[in-house]
Amino acid sequence: QQPVQSPQAVILREGEDAVINCSSSKALYSVHWYRQKHGEAPVFLMILLKGGEQKGHDKISASFNEKKQQSSLYLTASQLSYSGTYFCGTEGGAQKLVFGQGTRLTINP
Amino acid sequence: DAGVIQSPRHEVTEMGQEVTLRCKPISGHNSLFWYRQTMMRGLELLIYFNNNVPIDDSGMPEDRFSAKMPNASFSTLKIQPSEPRDSAVYFCASRRQMNTEAFFGQGTRLTVV
Predict the structure, then answer these.
(1) How far apart are the C-alpha atoms of A96 and A103, rounded to whole Å?
(2) Residue A55: pLDDT above 80?
(3) Smallest Cβ distance to B98: which of A43, A91, A99?
(4) How far apart, in whole angstroms, are the C-alpha atoms of residue A9 and residue B96?
(5) What is the pLDDT of residues A62-75, one digit of tens each?
(6) Of A55, A90, B46, B74, which is the most buried if we count CB atoms within 10 A?
(7) Are the C-beta atoms of A82 and A74 separated by less than 8 Å?
(8) Residue B66 to residues A22, B14, B61, B72, B108: CA-CA distances in angstroms?
(9) Pairwise CB contact (< 8 Å): A101 & B41
(10) Contact present, A16 and A103 (Cβ < 8 Å)
(11) Largest Cα–Cα distance of chain B, in whole Å?
């Protein structure tokens, strides 16, 4: 069963912050985050494992609440290069990796 | 490493024809996934393999779709007969093991007319 992402689309000005949410109806072992530019393949950003550890690099970070089966991706002081579609992927067992419908992020100058 | 390699990159075919998409995973990766991407459904998991064995094909839409992985370095996704609603981008992805990064191929854009 696919995780649910919200919002479906976000439009920001450069320098603004954004939060993308991901929730699952199943117990999770891990949550993945990927970004896809138009016409390209999804590219890995980070993975969060059971334990609620928050990860991040540069100005993109994420959290994972395993009790609520939810994850959030935080983009701080957004840059033009952050534009794209963000996908969360969830693993609930049997090594099955399923993705949400995506959140389209547009950053304007 | 060359990454995950998919072929062809683009395929245009007529309704009713057989279509075969190919994927070469990264060497040493034990899991392989096939996804279909559309605007409506996002990235939809069709089937995945562990150590060349199909584990879950519940995402395969119909009997017209079939997938094989005869060895660790090659997989195919076949659609027979193809229909216009099969038009989408099909991605193959591989990874070393559970809870690790998945690497995607560049995808095959399929158009069925």
Answers:
(1) 21
(2) no
(3) A91
(4) 32
(5) 999 888 999 999 99
(6) A90
(7) no
(8) 30, 19, 10, 18, 16
(9) yes
(10) no
(11) 39
Pairing of strands B10-13, A103-108: unpaired
pLDDT tens for B43-96 read 999 999 999 999 999 999 889 999 999 999 999 999 999 999 999 999 999 999
Which residues of B fall within a CB distance of 8 Å from A28? none
A-chain residue closest to B57, CA distance: A96
**Percent of chain A scoring above 70 in pLDDT:** 94
What per-residue confidence (pLDDT) applies to B1?
65
Chain A to chain B, count of Cβ pairs less than 8 Å apart?
A: 60
Element (H, E) at B77: strand B74-79
Residues sharing a CB contact under 8 Å with residue B34, sequence separation 6 or more, in sequence order: B23, B45, B46, B47, B48, B67, B75, B77, B90, B91, B92
Question: How high does pLDDT run on average in chain A?
Answer: 91
Q: Mean pLDDT in chain B?
A: 95
